[in-house]
Amino acid sequence: MDSFFSMTQDSANSLHIVGEPTFEGLARYIEQNNVTKILVMAGAGISVAAGIPDFRSPHTGIYANLGKYNLNSPTDAFSLTLLRERPDVFYNIVREMDLWPGHFWPTLVHYFIKLLADEGRLLRCCTQNIDGLERACGLPKSLLVEAHGSFSTASCIGCRSPYDIDLVSHECRQGKVPYCDKCGGVVKPDVVFFGESLPDSFFDLFDDLPKVELLLIMGTSLQVHPFAGLAVGVRPDVPRVLFNLERVGDIMFRFPTDEPSLRPLSRNHSGSIHSSSSSEGYGQYAQHAADTEGICRDIFFPGDCQQTVRCLAEAMGLGERLAAAVSEGEKKRESYVAP
């Protein structure tokens, strides 16, 4: 892909890979360069509109509302140690969250990602979310990487026997802790707990990074590694677009409005991104984060990602199809009968 052929001068007197760093400019870049290998990094922010709180927001986030459980750390609620010792704590939290399939429904952003797949432009969607809404909107399994697992399936933490998720959710809603009828272990949704390894599918994703032509980062704080490392793993000529309420990533990005002296994460800083034992295997890609002198590749669309993504869809000529997909999803939600 001849990315550098579409550069023009921006307001900061530097070149931008996409030409004009606007919704229309990005849409034009996608069309003119026939971009067919988009990597989407999705975080909790894309599901807030579905009624699901994120983890880290003050006062409203999941972690902020765990005080009544007297945990040493909010993350203890999602540790195997506590699950084995006090499984009732986890299942009380799960009952309050009610993330079981059918309770929450996809948002406009989820349907936009599905549209990218339908258009043949999606290489992969890697999501931090455990709500399963990417599955619910019909995104093909082959294009989806659930980095932290999901509530769509369940298994025993002892013998790993799979369990029907509807039966597990039914027991949870009845105030019970589901146990394995084979080994007696606790049965839990297949979400990744702290201290557990991420699924192989996540690390397989690093084989995709050299192929990526455009990176869309949606609704994530980029505070959790190794997930956040994907953003510095793509080639230096790949545009990276952030859809978020506020700027994240610190020096990982240089946006058109930044001072020229501000530079993204470079190979000299690559050591700082290794904050998890599960991150082994992606450090080799950190070298690609170095900025090309005088050329900007990052775009930040601040605000509610439901609105900013809608703007991009309209600029791409997908506005009507996206609205139709959202409307069809609403009809399915209204007619849904829980098992």
UniProtKB/TrEMBL annotation:
Q: Which InterPro entries match?
A: DHS-like_NAD/FAD-binding_dom, NAD-dep_sirtuin_deacylases, Sirtuin, Sirtuin_cat_small_dom_sf, Sirtuin_class_I, Ssirtuin_cat_dom
Molecular function GO labels = glycosyltransferase activity; histone deacetylase activity, NAD-dependent; hydrolase activity; NAD+ binding; zinc ion binding
Report the co-factor binding details: Binds 1 zinc ion per subunit.
CC terms in the record's Gene Ontology section: cytoplasm; nucleus
Give coiled-coil spans as residue ranges: none
Q: Which domain of life is it from?
A: Eukaryota
What is this protein called in UniProt?
A: NAD-dependent protein deacetylase
